[in-house]
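Q: Could you write out the predicted structure for this multi-component system? I'm mainly interested in how the pieces pack against one another.
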Amino acid sequence: MVNKEIALDTEEKIWKAATKVFERDGYAGARMQVIADEAGINKALLHYYFRSKEKLFGKIFIEKYNKFFSTLAILADQDMEFFEKIDTVIDSYMEMLLENPEMPSMLINTITHHPELIDKLNMEGAQKIRGVLQSEAEKGNIIAVESLQILTSVVGLCIMPFLAKPIAMHIFKLDMEFYQEVLNKRGPFVKKAIRAILKP
Amino acid sequence: MVNKEIALDTEEKIWKAATKVFERDGYAGARMQVIADEAGINKALLHYYFRSKEKLFGKIFIEKYNKFFSTLAILADQDMEFFEKIDTVIDSYMEMLLENPEMPSMLINTITHHPELIDKLNMEGAQKIRGVLQSEAEKGNIIAVESLQILTSVVGLCIMPFLAKPIAMHIFKLDMEFYQEVLNKRGPFVKKAIRAILKP
DNA sequence: CCAAAAATTGACCAATTGGTTAAATTAAAT
DNA sequence: ATTTAATTTAACCAATTGGTCAATTTTTGG
């Protein structure tokens, strides 16, 4: 048998390198040679562990996003008061974004260019949260609008400063500290904003 | 001299074809041969009119996004009551998105991968609107938060359903008519939401 | 220690890529 | 009508790309 530790190590190095390169350059822009260099290994070894560029990308993508969506699912199931639940979701979302600012555009791009991957994502989390929103609206605790309007609002409010970062920093000539402060204050701001929006 | 009409026609065909392909496949994913085919011309003719892939992409990108941002600048200068101005911006933004749903992710991707193009964008529009927000906050007409929080909220609320469309339709198994209805109702929803958020 | 299995590599390949060029066609000018 | 300039094309090119393979090194199990 093979040395599992070393094998795992190499696989891990590839995983990290590929993640970095795919996130930075996108699928079409990524180069297998660049990934190999980044991992400090031979290009042929990439194909030895993961058969093709597509398979490598697909595996990384699915693992990363399923991890995120399963976190959402757990949150939605927790026994909490409604706004507490919303707050927890927002916190979790913001935390994830602070660590992976590229996730939203990555997700959108991938769904657009590799629609076959959608089916491999386990989206219970989003569905459960939508269910919660619908039942709250029926109870009259929040405004009566299609739950998608609310869902996209929460996500949009959380995501936008991350998406807009490079553009906003340039347009308004901001420095990193200033923008980081905006990002840090975003969570509390979104929580207040959502409360204001949802008030019946 | 050359026949200007025919020349313009060819250039226009290239322009349209390239716009379509770049929007669909992204810069890295786009192929000059595909653009040539789409335009119904020889690939060498692409390089005759636009010297390189980069130049072709840059010109199209700058023209399209400057047109949008200059619209914003005009709106910001109009003599209107504050919320009327906000509403007009939202309307203009939604209208643009309905016709060009790919613009947000295109903008973000381009800024990330071709940062040198930012400098060629004329962003007065955004700056003026930020100024308006700041002065309204000082007057106490709206909540006192960093104007970027508001700006990103307006944009995020408008954009999100367009960005999320392919994913949302799949997760929740929605049909096109249903989703179109959500998009059509988005403008009024965002206007109400922003009013609720901004109330001091 | 040794043979089998697994991991790793360098050299290579066919296909694709953006881009060029010289020749052919078409339009303009005199 | 003929020269000149602009447009268009087919063929070509060098570089890059994802991917393969035979050979070598390392690890493992007996």
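A: Regarding packing and overall arrangement: The mean pLDDT of chain A is 92.
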